[in-house]
Design a protein that fits this description.
Layout (H helix, E strand, L loop, with lengths): L1 E6 L5 H15 L5 E6 L11 H9 L16 H4 L2 E4 L2 H9 L4 H5 L1 E3 L20 H22 L1
Parallel strand pairs: 1-2, 1-3, 3-4
Helix pairs in contact: 1-6, 2-6
Bound molecules: 4-nitrophenyl phosphate.
The site of 4-nitrophenyl phosphate has 11 residues, from loops.
Length: 151
């Protein structure tokens, strides 16, 4: 299974989803490929946001090696599932799709724990430590669900 996690900047939410998922598949020695990307180009080459790195570290997840990159059209060919964090990411990725098959790969990540509700992972970038903690809790729970679903 090849899974791509996508948000806007690829420095807060999708790196965390990526790091959590990488750690979980490694622990279970699963043959998964995990990556993340942002729809925007603001932070290409940057490390994840320091607040996200610190929050993840607190719970034993290392995000320090990840570097931001921008989503590109050939990601539709490289990945089986493209999980987006919010509806704006969904629109941005769908806009780049070339076919119905591309579109079928794109899913709102929180629909895995709240099926059919189309909830969004809130963007913590302009938020407080509490917002980073909330994102951690949501994505920890959701990555567990994804793992259960596909193993
Ligand atoms: P992310 O958060 O999409 O979760 O990485 C953001 C990071 C940066 C910006 C917005 C959201 N920004 O406007 O620079």
């Amino acid at each position: 299974m090849k899974i791509l996690m996508v948000c806007l900047g690829n420095i807060c939410r999708s790196p965390l989803a990526d790091g959590l998922m990488r750690q979980k598949v490694a622990q279970k020695q699963l043959d998964f490929e995990i990556d993340s990307a942002g729809t925007a180009n603001y932070h290409i080459g940057s490390q994840a946001d320091k607040r996200m790195i610190a929050t993840a570290k607190k719970y034993g997840v290392d995000l320090s090696t990840l570097r931001a990159r921008q989503f590109e059209v050939n990601d539709f060919d490289k990945f089986d599932i493209i999980y987006v964090m919010d509806k704006s990411n969904l629109q941005n990725v769908n806009r780049l799709s070339r076919s119905e098959n591309d579109k079928l790969k794109v899913k709102l990540i929180l629909n895995e724990i709240y099926p059919g509700e189309h909830q969004e992972v809130p963007d913590p970038y302009y938020g407080t430590q509490n917002d980073f903690e909330e994102v951690f809790e949501l994505l920890d729970k959701t990555t567990n669900s994804i793992l259960e679903k596909y193993t």
